[in-house]
Amino acid sequence: MVSPRPWLRAAAVIGATAMLLASSCTWQLSLFIPEGVPPPAGAPVPPVDTHASGRPADQLRAWAEQRSATLEIPVIALEAYAYAARVAEVENPRCHIAWTTLAGIGQVESHHGTYRGARLAPNGDVSPPIRGVRLDGSGGTLRIVDSEEPATDDDGVVRAMGPMQFIPETWRLYGVDAHNDGRVSPDNIDDAALAAAGYLCWRGKDLATPRGWITALRAYNNSGVYARAVRDWATAYAAGHPL
Q: What is the dihedral of CA 199, 205, 209, 213, to 10 degrees?
């Protein structure tokens, strides 16, 4: 069967423009690798049927419910991270992305889809939608203009979208249907977590290595402070508690 998620494979090809928009390229030449990366993988995730109907991440309900309260991660979000890591393991076994890394990103980006009172629906939808700051070049951000994205400000300046904070052009390339229902939304934590896994796998190749992990994280957000924050949260989650 041909994979419906080819972006998880190491051979995925994407546009150079999106890569330049998503991150600066200077880090590739002088990459600093902090201690403690990659963070531990955490509790093993049970096998899942990646082609299940309905919400496939629901297969991990018992696993997530055992850990949700202790980790202070909503069950729906924890299911999404674990399911995304499991799908990545099936589609691209060389990637080795762990649910703890996705959970670390989800915490730093949006408090697992709960930023400013947002709520997670049983199907993974986040409402109201979470939008980041204007990427207009101020405050250390890149200026990113996207005339193809309808959800921009009047001047075309974009904002990152959803619980995993995707730039619109990157979402167009990596957005994925985690429910196998034909709907793709950056405001659904299942879709967003699975898309993040694909992006990180493509950029880092093997996230079980220090260089692979930090390369992936610096591509997601070109900030050493950001990468260390994700590392610290992921390490705490692997140990069974939040920071």
A: -20
Cα(231)–Cα(217) distance, integer angstroms: 9
Using the structure block, give the residue that is written with the tokens 């992936």.
216
Instruction: Tell me the pLDDT of the chain averaged across its residues.
Output: 86
Q: Which of 41, 56, 53, 54 is nearest to 87 (CA)?
A: 56
* Secondary structure (3-state) at 63: helix
DSSP bridge partners of 188: 125
Q: How far apart are CA 192 and CA 208, in angstroms?
A: 22
| Token pair for 39 | 């963070």
Per-residue model confidence (pLDDT) at position 133: 81
Q: Which tens digit of pLDDT belongs to each residue from 31-89? A: 788 999 999 999 999 999 998 989 999 999 999 999 999 999 999 999 999 999 999 99
Q: What is the pLDDT of residue 22?
A: 36
Per the rule left: phi > 0, alpha: psi between -120 and 50, beta: everything else, 67 is alpha
Which residue stretches of 165-238 are H helix?
A: 168-174, 189-204, 210-220, 224-238
* Distance, CA of 221 to CA of 61 (rounded, Å): 30
In tens, the pLDDT along 126-162 reads: 999 999 888 776 666 667 677 565 555 556 788 999 9
Helices (H), ranges, 50-188: 61-71, 75-91, 99-110, 168-174
Q: Establish whether the linkage from the previous residue to 128 is cis, with ω within 30° of 0.
A: yes
Contact between 233 and 242 (Cβ < 8 Å): yes
